[in-house]
Write a structure and sequence with these properties.
Helix content is 41%, strand content 16%. It is built from eleven helices and twelve strands. The two termini are 30 Å apart. The structure holds NADP nicotinamide-adenine-dinucleotide phosphate.
Length: 303
């Protein structure tokens, strides 16, 4: 059976991927302690020992605001390590799946971004993620760069869990209403990744060539769009109707107040509009991503 090396197994997407990929092959998932992505020697050593057929890189430096203060640390993980993974993939004859972000765009387009649109990041995080994309593209290997957005799930550090925590502590929540994007459930990202691998004939001799033929960048986000305020409103509505005693149940919801980006200054600038078009994903792999509202309902009724 073919071997998959997965990074970031304790992250939102990596956690879901470890379970989804286990249905496809033997998954080797070194944690940060075993393979620190900012240590090129450790990355090379681990990969040469594991000899995977596929590398799935779900690890990243994702602290968007902190990256402004420590761009070199973010660059090592997001910008440099993906290139090393790509070089090692080439050496091993492996394919590479890597995740990137809507924050490679500046948000000025005002219509869903396609893979043809020129990235223009406005944050250190976005710049380091774009550097990672470019580092992979510079190596001639079968690769898929999957750009996702506004990731949340039932575990980890994310907007859904932050809103539920704050809702228990405060009577009023002021949430930014002029940044538009697509909240995407980590489990939906893992499910779509598994479907893509199956489409490409994973575990069959032609997989490598099929992946090479489809190599490139794909947007992979929930369908639809909303603001952070709209996302928070949907979270609170679900929490209010959740059965008592269930993990997402909220007895008393706070008042939600829409505010502007200017009223909530952060170290990193974020795009005002970063909806991505999934048309290429659907056209190429037949993957139709669920609407963000139905995904949120599924997430909040999952265990
Ligand atoms: N979160 C979002 O809203 C969002 C939006 C768009 C795109 N993305 C992209 O989606 C992918 C998955 O993101 P996520 O939300 O699942 O991230 P996450 O929950 O923050 O998890 C990141 C993972 O990366 C690991 N990691 C960080 N630095 C590392 C290092 N130096 N060496 C090894 N592992 C390291 C972390 O390990 P520890 O557990 O040890 O910290 C963690 O397991 C990333 O490529 C991210 O850029 C995320």
């Amino acid at each position: 059976m073919s071997r998959i090396l997965l990074t970031g197994k304790n992250g939102q997407v990596g956690f879901e991927l470890e379970r989804r990929l286990a249905r496809l092959g033997q998954v080797v998932a070194p944690g940060r302690g075993e393979m620190d992505l900012s240590d090129p020697d450790a990355v090379r050593r681990t990969l040469r020992e594991a000899k995977p057929d596929l590398i799935v890189n779900a690890a990243a430096y994702t602290a968007v605001d902190r990256a402004e203060a420590e761009p070199e640390r973010a660059l090592a993980v997001n910008g440099v390590a993906p290139g090393i993974l790509a070089e090692e993939a080439k050496r091993l004859g492996a394919a590479l799946i890597h995740y990137s972000t809507d924050y490679v765009f500046d948000g000025s387009k005002g219509a869903p971004y396609t893979e043809e649109d020129e990235p223009r990041p406005i944050s250190a995080y976005g710049r380091t993620k774009l550097a990672g994309e470019r580092a992979i593209e510079a190596v001639d290997i079968p690769h898929l760069i999957l750009r996702t957005s506004w990731v949340y799930g039932a575990r980890g550090s994310n907007f859904l869990l932050t809103i539920l925590r704050l809702a228990k502590e405060r009577d009023e929540l002021a949430i930014v209403d002029d940044q538009i994007g697509a909240p995407t459930w980590s489990r939906a990202i893992a499910a779509a990744t598994g479907t893509i691998l199956e489409y490409l004939g994973w575990n069959q001799p032609a997989f490598h060539d099929a992946c090479a033929a489809k190599r490139g960048t794909y947007n992979l986000t929930a369908a639809g769009q909303t603001s952070w305020h709209g996302f928070a409103a949907a979270i609170l509505a679900h929490a209010a109707s959740a059965p008592p005693g269930t993990p997402f149940c909220l007895e008393q919801a706070p008042v939600l107040k829409p505010i502007t980006t200017e009223q909530y200054p952060t170290p990193a600038q974020r795009p005002r509009y970063s909806v991505l078009s999934n048309a290429k994903l659907q056209r190429t792999f037949g993957v139709a991503m669920p609407d963000w509202k139905s995904s949120l309902a599924d997430c909040m009724s999952s265990e």
